[in-house]
Amino acid sequence: MVASTLAACGGGGGDSATPVLNWYINPDSGGQAAIAERCSAESNGAYQIEVSQLPRDSPAQREQLIRRLAANDASIDLMSLDVVFPPEFAQADFLAPVPEDVAQEVTEGVFQGAVDSATWNDELVAVPFWSNTQLLWYRKSVAEAAGLDMSQPVTWDQLIEAAEGQGKLLSAQGRRSESLMVWFNAMLESAGGQYIEESGESPDDIQFGLSTPEADRASEVMAAVANSSAVGAGFTTASEDTSATEFESDDAGFMVNWPFVYAQALSKVEAGTLDQSVPDDYGWALYPAVDEGTPSAPPLGGIDIAVSAFSPNPDLAYEAVTCIVQDENQAEYMVTNGNPASSIAVYDDPEVQEAYPMADTIRESLELAASRPLTAYYSEVLGSFLREFHPPGSVNDQTGERTETLTRAVLSGEQLL
Amino acid sequence: MTQTTLPPVEKTQPVSSPRGTISDRSRAERKLGWLLAGPAFLVMLLVTAYPIVQAVYYSLFSYRLTDPENRSFEGLGNYWVILTDAVWWQSILVTVIITVITVAVELVLGFALAMVMAKALSSIRPVVRAAILIPYAVITVVSAFAWAFAFRISTGFVNTWFAWLPGVSDTTDWFGGQASSLFVICIAEIWKTTPFISLLLLAGLAQVPDVLQEAAKVDGATAWQRLWKVTIPNMKAAIMVALLFRTLDAFRIFDSIFIMTAGANNTESVSFLAYRQTISRVEIGLGSAVSVLLFLSVVLIAFSFIKGFRVDLAQARGDR
Amino acid sequence: MSTKQKTWWWIGGVLIVVYCLFPIAWILSLSFKTTADLANKQFLPSAWTWENYTTILTGTASDLFLPALRNSFGICLIATFISCVLSMFAAYAIARLDFPGKKLILGTALAVAIFPVISIVTPLFNLWRQIGLYDTWPGLIIPYLSLTLPISIWTMSAFFREIPWEMEQAAQVDGATTWQAFRKVIVPLAAPGVFTTAIIAFFIAWNDFAYGISLTSTSRARPVPAALGLFSGASQFQDPTGAIAAAAVIVTIPVVVLVLIFQRRIVAGLTNGAVKG
């Protein structure tokens, strides 16, 4: 009774009999809004999805949502959550449980990494929507001149050497933000380590894997890259966008970055501000490994869709989620908005294949991709990490251990962040 | 001092008013005074005193918004954590550095601006006055963005323009280190708030009697001597008020840092630290403790100014 | 003054104007750059475009910007209005009546003016989410009063002290009723002061950022300064420099217009409030 009244009140516009579901989305190029419209129409009046935009970077998105949810705000039904946040939301009881049949349906044929990121305490708590991964981008001309065989796995050391030898740039993200964790975690996983070896309910139970030889190796590579002459000016403030712009310049050599860089270059060609020869020179491969013989462990990003525990209509919301994440929507979202699907089958879609010459590489990368540390205290873990690991040029074999100590102190409330 | 605020009314009191009713009248006036001023007074108290009392209360707990069950009483534990943490002292240091640099530069620059405005010819005075109000009226966030974009490697022109300076090149990363970041933050702050100081000083300049200037001139004092011996001593009150307001304002710096560096490279101010604990980390207890400490710092500064420098605000206001 | 001196003061004036307008000119120029041009490292665009303005007014960022603009105007105007009404009464009492506590009120206003905003944000955030004021207009209007009230009281009472109140009596002697005397004599004298105070209070509310980002979370109440930091580029990873610049220009226009029209009054108001000449 109360629920239905709330739902009716939450409506605002449109047909008053149709329950409105509010979907808080991360900014994109309008793709989620289009999907919302399509699913609303398909539901035949069962529900109407309205979208509201969250801030641009994921920590700010989390802040906004957490503040509202802590106020038991019933005006949120669906949320687009960055893959690092479901554990915290689930632990705080902010998420409505995923019905058994839905869980079954939305995890079938989905990348394992994406499913893992939406799982907490062995239960699916959110629904994988799209999955991002970083590739190693290279200028074919530069790689050729350096004599680097890009069909084989390459290591960071090889990249530094090749870029320095050719006087070209190796672009990565050295900024004090999430992207630094993305980078470090990928190298740590490639070295065979894990940021969090065992997670637990309470902070004291968490086992960190930072005082290990693997972490030291990852730190060593990070410092080597940051201190090499191959990185651009202002490396300590370089973001994904900085890297993408660098990679369009004449000094471009190699870069690790998300697939948006390709679409961005093409749109600049279309706008007449970039020569077609530039994207023609773009090559792509799997994320670099830390050492010869170690596996590539590309970063995993993307968005999961979660249903708020305070939603007046959780069942309807899950119905909507199942509609949102179906393959056709993921495929179209990938083509129009440049965000790769989490469903494996989508990569066989001819339209996707046509829009993404690197679709197969993305799929392969997503199959290998490693999640960032899954923990209910992600922002504390990230904050402590950034304090010790930024600037990346000063990182050494002590940094991991210091970070572990700091994170423990912060989690037990003995230190500020 | 205060009772002479505006007595003309009393001067024109009807003579017929009998003596005995004066106390009644003053009682009625008292009542009316509080009736009129009371609402404003109450609102001011409600929006500040109440929250700060709440903050003191919250600061005694360990309380994380996403983990309400584990809320527990900590006593002064949060304060102990903060005061023994290098992060707190680092943010104090940064805040003090910004405050001292900006206030010192603004005072000198503001004085120069005030002099020009006072002497500027009437033909261009309105133009200068309008221009000087613009930095004051522009949103701090906008000013911070403008300066950040100007200095940023990717979008800025500063490196191109000043490449001839030693240490500046096409690839100088201003936001890559603590000192250079603070330098840019200070520039943005100085640009934005100097006009306010200069207006206060301009009003102070007007208070300096012309007679004294003339007399000093006759005595053969140079312009420089007149400035130090006549002008400045006579506008001490205005300078102190400007100093007090700007110091307290600078100490609360938040917007520019948020926009320009978001606290990277050890550029976090105390306000920013408090914001992060509460709003980003949703640690209400710890954040409240930082807020209370920030409040106490501001009170301390205001108190030492008023006692130490004997800034008499009532006098400076003209309540003579 | 000799011609030489005149020239120097004139140059000084021109320098001040350049100093004050330079960053504004820069953000204006930036707002006309194309996406590719943003990184041209020059002051001026190599090709001019309206692209950034269309992005925020009709394009992808308009969902974020237009509601924010409406919120900013609405919230700031209401807060300004309330604080003007409240401080009008208070300033009248302070300037005109003799009652104990006058110093207390002015002192409180001063204390509130120097209050660190961030210190109030934490408890307000917690209180607002409990009583449902979080992310609403009143949820911002109320704390904005803490910014606008103190300066309004000081500025307005300084103005009111200058009013020759005895004229009211004179009018009454001439046979006007109290109300007529107030309306015909005092209101015209007091209006400029009230108006100036309103402009200054509006500037201060318009400038707020800390309350804006802490006490809102959607387009329902988020003001422009808070929204500026939330823009995004064509993709999640693209910097929205052009859109920010264009939005910054648009929110600067109202204050520049106010400044140009009322510069003399604003200067009088600002200096009266703090130091009376």
Automatic annotation (TrEMBL), chain A:
Keywords in alphabetical order: Signal, Sugar transport, Transport
Keyword Transport: yes
Family as reported in the entry's similarity comment: Belongs to the bacterial solute-binding protein 1 family.
Protein name (Swiss-Prot/TrEMBL): Multiple sugar transport system substrate-binding protein
Source organism: Geodermatophilus dictyosporus
Highest classification ranks of the organism: Bacteria, Bacillati, Actinomycetota, Actinomycetes, Geodermatophilales
UniProtKB/TrEMBL annotation, chain B:
Cell membrane is among the record's keywords: yes
Family the entry assigns: Belongs to the binding-protein-dependent transport system permease family.
Taxonomic source organism: Geodermatophilus dictyosporus
Keyword Oxidoreductase among UniProt keywords: no
Annotated keywords: Cell membrane, Membrane, Sugar transport, Transmembrane, Transmembrane helix, Transport
Start and end residues of each stretch annotated as Disordered: 1-24
Compartment annotation: Cell membrane
InterPro entries given in the database record: MetI-like, MetI-like_sf
Protein's name in the database: Multiple sugar transport system permease protein
PANTHER family, A to Z: BLR7065 PROTEIN, INTEGRAL MEMBRANE SUGAR TRANSPORT PROTEIN
UniProtKB/TrEMBL annotation, chain C:
UniProt keyword DNA damage present: no
GO BP of this protein: transmembrane transport
Main location: membrane
Biological source species: Geodermatophilus dictyosporus
Subcellular compartments: Cell membrane
UniProt record similarity statement: Belongs to the binding-protein-dependent transport system permease family.
One Pfam family here: BPD_transp_1
Assigned keywords, A-Z: Cell membrane, Membrane, Sugar transport, Transmembrane, Transmembrane helix, Transport
Protein's recorded name: Multiple sugar transport system permease protein
Coiled-coil residue spans: none
Protein topology in the membrane: Multi-pass membrane protein
One GO CC term, this protein: plasma membrane
